[in-house]
Structures are given as C-alpha cells and as structure tokens.
Amino acid sequence: MRLKGKKTTLDDFRRKCREHNLSMTPQRLAIYQVLMNATDHPSAEQVFQEVKTAFPDLSIDTVYRTLATFSQIGVIRVVEGYGQAKRYDPDMESHHHFRCTECDRIVDFREKSFDNLPIPAIIKNQVVVSHVKVILEGVCEQCRKG
Ligand SMILES: [Zn+2]
Ligand SMILES: [Zn+2]
Predict the structure, then answer these.
(1) For residues 106 and 98, what is the distance between their CA atoms, to the nearest angstrom?
(2) For the CA of 108, the nearest ligand
(3) Domains in the chain and their CATH numbers?
(4) pLDDT of 19-58, one tens digit each?
(5) Looking at per-residue confidence, does 8 or 96 come out higher?
C-alpha cells in the first residue's frame, strides 16, 4: 500500500544520472524500475531476484553496488536500522514508515504534522537535520487477522 506516493520519475532518474556522469546502462535502468514499481521497500536480494531473469550475468554484488550508487546520487534512500538486510526506498519525498514487527512489511504514509516535528534542542545544537522520518512499529492489518 502506498498512499499518494510521489516517486522520482524516470526523467528525474535520467537527469540525476547525467548530472553525476553515471551512464545509463540497461542493468541500472532495470534495477531502478524494480524499485520504482515496488511498494514494499525491497532488499537488494529481492531486487536481484526480479532482475536476474532479464540479466542472467548480473551478480548480487553489482546490485548492491548499484543501489549504493543510487542512494549516493539521491534517487533512492536506504531505509536503515532494522538490524536486517538493508531496504531501499524510491520515494524521495518526505514521508514516514509503519513497520510490522511480525512480517517486516514497511508501509509508507504521509503526515504533515510529523514532517514539522520540532527538533529537540539537545539534537539541534549538535547536528544538522536534513530530513525527519517517523517510524511507527506494531502489527499490520494482515498479521492481526492472521
Ligand atoms: Zn505484518
Ligand atoms: Zn518509504
């Protein structure tokens, strides 16, 4: 489920690649497209499973490297801190996550009041905050029913 997700478009992607002198290979395009079409913040392994049919020579390492490059040039974000495989997010607009602790699903949602959360002074004086992401955890609808 993605609520009104405004993702980076393919045009944005092309432009960013050009800006960073990253050549647009069919592999890179395929990897990016998998992410664009995914709604569940896939891991590198999941991305790899999706593209390997079309590109049998592609290795998981290449997928990892490509995803790292994508996050460096700012077309995807790494969703950190869940203690498992890194997950990737093509939605670069400010949004928040609900993570199910049972099935590990990550659901996007938007909430203006969360975007504007006041930064506590103790943090504000020490660091520069570039974006705010609220992560809610609990049990998703499907798991509650299950
Ligand atoms: Zn769940
Ligand atoms: Zn997200």
Answers:
(1) 6
(2) 2
(3) 10-89 (1.10.10.10), 96-145 (3.30.1490)
(4) 999 999 999 999 999 999 988 899 999 999 999 999 999 9
(5) 96
